Amino acid sequence: NTTEATVTVETLDDVPEHVLRGLPEDVRLFPSAVDKTRLGVWATKSILKGKKFGPFVGDKKKRSQV
Q1: What range does the domain containing 28 cover?
Q2: What domain of life does the UniProt record list for this protein's source (predicted)?
Q3: 17 SS3 class
């Protein structure tokens, strides 16, 4: 008798619309290379050192809160 854990895979449907609208033009969300159950941020072209993104929209959390 084996039990298998149900794995939830994050999809674009899980991402709030304002996050998708706020992505820079050359940045996309695709499955993570680190954790296949999560989305990762991927660049479609090189990002220059020092490039800034923003403004941050959302609630900042302490590491202990997430």
Answers
A1: 12-43
A2: Eukaryota
A3: helix
Helix (H, G, I), strand (E, B) or coil at 56: coil
Cβ neighbors of 29 (< 8 A, separation 6 or more) are 12, 15, 20, 23, 39, 40, 41, 42
**DSSP code at position 36:** T
Contact between 27 and 44 under an 8 Å Cβ cutoff? The reply is yes
Taking only the tens place, the pLDDT of each residue in 5-44 is 788 999 999 998 888 888 888 899 999 999 999 999 999 9
Instruction: Find out whether 42 and 28 touch, Cβ atoms under 8 Å.
Output: yes
Instruction: Please state, in angstroms and rounded to a whole number, the distance separating the CA atoms of residues 28 and 41.
Output: 6
> Residue holding tokens 């996050």?
19
Q: Is residue 3 part of a domain?
A: no
Domain annotation covers residue 29:
yes
Q: pLDDT per residue over 51-60, tens digit each?
A: 887 777 678 8
